[in-house]
């Protein structure tokens, strides 16, 4: 968003109000916001929004409860705006992404709204569906708009896209605004340098960034089949990663920085640390899996001058890193992970949140992947 404002020379014209929802690392987020938007006049307002649901066919019998939660959130936001003397009608534009609060604020605001891609998966919002799905989506869009006071982005919504040049031409829409990549590179390198300094990350050696992602489990951490899946999943993945590393004379001499997301449990961190020691005997490695480090985006480490390659299971980080440094090698192990999951009895909709949306259909993967 800051890059978009830079791009259109809006730093002096705009006065910003930034809404921040209550999360675990709220103080760190505010610190980052202050750094990113330091050239602008801005005000940060804290919000405490309850988790909400949308009306769907599946949750029909919960509609009364859903309505009441959304009504509470909507009224709460109106009170916050009134308390802070904010008149939305005086604003020129609203920038938003996937925040809960933006759904209600969009419904209140009648001016220009720009949706910013949070990740590569957001392309699905702007893809035309078949007639039946289009009608169903339109019906529930208006039901949620009228009764729950929620306005969601839809395929006609104005949107700002950083990696527009990675999208296949037939899926590029007129309502997609390009964000200047050169401005982004400059801004991101400054931000990355700060974050690297903040966590005192230092290395004299070349390293590979390995982004280790887990599925979103629906069963508890003590589930025996989940633990069995995790162990087999890691063993299989580490074997494949070792194979890619040893195909390259440069990479096999590199250190390995393993970065997880914050959906990894304490028990799973122990399993990771144990198997990493066994699997990567020939490389020095470091595992960043605690909450503090998990908060930092993987692409921050990938922008480091000593990072020579990134290994990941099809993530937004791959696109951002390739854009920032076109020379970096990117090894996408999505195909390998899919083969493992197809043969896993545990990997079902009952146990795991499965998303069958095929991103490779919409993005030019040949511009991205090194192998």
Structure characterization notes:
The chain is α/β, with parallel strands linked by helices and 371 residues long. The chain has 2 domains: 178 residues, Rossmann fold, CATH 3.40.50; 167 residues, Rossmann fold (3-Layer(aba) Sandwich), CATH 3.40.50. The protein is built from 12 helices and 11 strands. It has a 5-stranded parallel sheet with strand order 9-8-7-10-11, with helices on both faces. A 4-stranded parallel sheet has the order 3-4-5-6, with no helix packed on it. A two-stranded parallel sheet has the order 1-2. The chain is globular, with a radius of gyration of 22 Å.
Question: Which labels suit this protein?
Answer:
single chain, 371 residues, alpha/beta, Rossmann fold, 2 domains, five-stranded parallel beta sheet, four-stranded parallel beta sheet
Ends apart, CA distance between termini:
32 Å
**Overall CATH class of the largest domain:** Alpha Beta
Reported by name, the CATH topology of the largest domain is Rossmann fold
Largest sheet: 5 strands, parallel
Number of domains: 2
CATH architecture type of the largest domain: 3-Layer(aba) Sandwich
Which strand order do you get reading across the main beta sheet?
9-8-7-10-11
- Low-confidence runs (pLDDT<50, min 5 residues)? none
Shape descriptor: globular
**Helix-strand topology string:** HEHEHEHEHEEHEHEHEHHEHEH
The average pLDDT value, as a whole number, equals 87
Helix content: 25-40%
Provide the structure class. Answer: alpha/beta
Secondary structure: number of strands = 11
């Amino acid at each position: 968003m800051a890059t978009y404002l830079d791009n259109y020379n809006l730093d002096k014209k705009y006065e910003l109000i930034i809404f921040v929802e209550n999360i675990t690392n709220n103080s760190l987020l505010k610190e980052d916001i202050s750094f990113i938007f330091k050239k602008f006049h801005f005000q940060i307002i804290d919000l405490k929004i309850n988790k909400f649901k949308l009306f769907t066919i599946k949750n029909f019998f919960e509609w009364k409860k859903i309505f009441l939660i959304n009504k509470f959130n909507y009224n709460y936001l109106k009170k916050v705006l009134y308390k802070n003397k904010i008149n939305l009608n005086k604003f020129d534009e609203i920038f938003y992404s996937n925040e809960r609060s933006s759904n209600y604020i969009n419904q209140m605001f009648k001016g220009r709204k720009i949706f910013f891609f949070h990740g590569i998966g957001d392309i699905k919002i702007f893809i035309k569906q078949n007639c039946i799905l289009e009608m169903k989506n339109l019906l529930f869009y208006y039901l949620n708009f009228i009764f729950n006071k929620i306005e969601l982005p839809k395929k006609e919504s104005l949107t700002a896209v950083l990696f527009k040049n990675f999208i296949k031409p037939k899926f590029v829409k007129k309502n997609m605004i390009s964000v200047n990549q050169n401005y982004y590179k400059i801004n991101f390198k400054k931000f990355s340098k700060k974050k690297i300094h903040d966590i005192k990350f230092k290395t004299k050696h070349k390293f590979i960034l390995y982004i280790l992602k887990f599925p979103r489990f629906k069963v508890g951490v003590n589930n025996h089949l989940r633990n069995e899946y995790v162990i087999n999943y890691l063993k299989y993945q580490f074997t494949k990663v070792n194979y890619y590393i040893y195909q390259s004379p440069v990479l096999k001499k590199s250190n390995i920085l393993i970065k997880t997301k914050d959906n990894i449990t304490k028990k799973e961190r122990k399993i990771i640390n144990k198997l990493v020691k066994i699997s990567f005997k020939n490389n020095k490695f470091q595992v960043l899996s605690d909450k503090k480090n998990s908060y930092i985006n993987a692409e921050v480490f990938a922008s480091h001058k000593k990072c020579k390659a990134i290994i990941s299971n099809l993530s937004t980080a791959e696109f951002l890193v390739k854009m920032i440094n076109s020379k970096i090698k990117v090894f996408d192990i999505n195909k390998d992970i899919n083969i493992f999951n197809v043969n896993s009895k545990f990997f079902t909709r009952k146990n795991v949140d499965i998303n069958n949306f095929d991103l490779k259909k919409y993005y030019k993967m040949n511009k991205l992947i090194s192998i």
